[in-house]
Amino acid sequence: MRVIRASALGMCFGVRDALRVVERVESPGRVSIHGELVHNEEVISDLALRGFRSVPESERGSIPESPEVLITAHGVSDRERRRLLEAGKTLVDTTCPLVRHVHETAVSLHREGYFVVIIGKRGHVEVEGITGDLVRYVVVQNAGEVVRYDASRIAIVSQSTTPPFEALQVRQAIEARNAGKEIRYVDTICRPTRERQQALLDLVEQVDAIVVVGGSNSNNTRQLARLAESRGRPVLQVRGAADLEPDWFMQFQVVGLTAGTSTLDRTVDEVHRALLAMRPACAQLQPQ
């Protein structure tokens, strides 16, 4: 079995920068992570072993007891920052600059009087950070949710990890169902997302199946898996090498490998080595 890695895969610069900030924290026991630093179980486990406290994403409405609070790569609203500062907390900020750009763009458009449509996943922490400072807005997950909005001026932005083709579909639906209105679209999909999704599209043309590595609740990892499936390729999404299912690969000659933007380099390499180690078992089942 041949294994081909995507030309762009795995950890993005925003995640790398966040991990570098965390590595420089001298007293982890004084810091509570306001949610999950990144959506990756391995990273979360490593941070817990170092002594960091963690506030579950579902409980971020409470004020952490620790003197310092770490803002995750997904960011928070300005309103939430003020709430934490007013509670006397020192903030350690690891917000990805591309996520910050989405937030600032949405707030700016809102101040200009636009009704803001955010293309993204409802309930996702990045989306909650974007909408936390808005009043007139809606979150749309797909083109089927688009309606005619009670607003004469509509602005559209996207969660940073939105697949470009989905953003296009939603944009076209908004324009079709809100004819005659002023509609402004700002492309806020991050470059690493575009690069990894384009690399996957190139990869599916060369392989029989795709392995996607990433956290089980990582949105961009799921998007990669969905994109491969939409191109008719069998997909196995795994958190690491331990999740691989050897029997699943017996029918394939060439397998593609990609990974979400919060996946550690070592995890991708471990999965790659494990896939290569399956070759003898697969070869035994090949016709002579």
How does the SSE layout of this entry go?
Layout: E1 2-5, H1 13-23, E2 31-34, H2 41-50, E3 53-55, E4 68-71, H3 78-86, E5 90-93, H4 97-111, E6 115-119, H5 125-131, E7 137-140, E8 153-158, H6 164-177, E9 182-185, H7 191-204, E10 209-213, H8 219-230, E11 235-238, E12 254-259, H9 265-277, H10 279-285
Parallel strand pairs: 1-12, 2-3, 2-4, 4-5, 6-7, 6-8, 8-9, 10-11, 10-12
Give a short summary of the structure.
With 288 residues, the chain is an alpha/beta fold.
Number of domains: 3
Question: Which CATH architecture of the largest domain is right?
Answer: 3-Layer(aba) Sandwich
Query: Helices and strands, in N-to-C order?
Result: EHEHEEHEHEHEEHEHEHEEHH
Spatially, the strands of the biggest sheet line up as 1-12-10-11
Query: What profile does the largest beta sheet have?
Result: 4 strands, parallel
Helix amount = 25-40%
Number of distinct helices: 10
User: Roughly what fraction of the amino acids lie in strands?
Assistant: 15-25%
Number of strands: 12
- Mean pLDDT over all positions: 93
| Estimated structural class | alpha/beta
Q: Compute the CA-based radius of gyration.
A: 21 Å
- The named CATH superfamily of the largest domain: 4-hydroxy-3-methylbut-2-enyl diphosphate reductase, catalytic domain
Q: What best-fitting shape do the alpha-carbon axes yield? A: flat
CATH topology of the largest domain: Cobalt-precorrin-4 Transmethylase, domain 1
Uncertain runs: 280-288
CATH class of the largest domain: Alpha Beta
**First and last CA, distance:** 15 Å
